[in-house]
Specification:
It contains no helices and eleven strands. It is mainly β. The strands form two sheets. Strands 2, 4, 5, 6, 9, 10 and 11 form a seven-stranded mixed β-sheet that branches. It is globular, with a radius of gyration of 13 Å.
Length: 113
């Protein structure tokens, strides 16, 4: 089984930007919806963003206007651009394929004031 691999988690000051990447060898959004979940300290996992085979995207309300998900199928990679970072964006971010379901190990994003 090939798991997605996330990169790009760093410690950043509030107001800054990050770009997370996820490479899922053998998967593209042509094959499977690609998703970003996150788990904040002491909280459950929440779906943050998705991109489907037709390029349509979904964002949870709390990140609309600040998060942008994109894809590069030639590289089997999806990206999550995060702007105007807030303290509450601190979390482990997971890349997840829908079909078949497969979770990456996650990448930690820490926002400081």
């Amino acid at each position: 089984e090939t798991r997605p691999v996330e990169r790009g988690g760093y410690s950043v000051q509030a107001g800054g930007s990050l770009r997370l990447s996820c490479t899922a060898s053998g998967f593209t959004s042509d094959d499977s919806d690609m998703n970003w979940y996150r788990q904040a300290p002491g909280k459950g996992c929440e779906l943050v963003s998705s991109i489907s085979h037709d390029g349509s995207t979904y964002y949870t309300d709390s990140v609309k206007g600040r998060f942008t998900m994109s894809q590069d199928n030639a590289k089997n990679t999806v990206y999550l651009q995060i702007d105007s970072l807030k303290l509450e964006d601190t979390a482990v971010y997971y890349c997840v394929t829908s079909t078949p379901p497969s979770w990456g190990k996650g990448t930690l994003v820490t926002i400081s004031s």
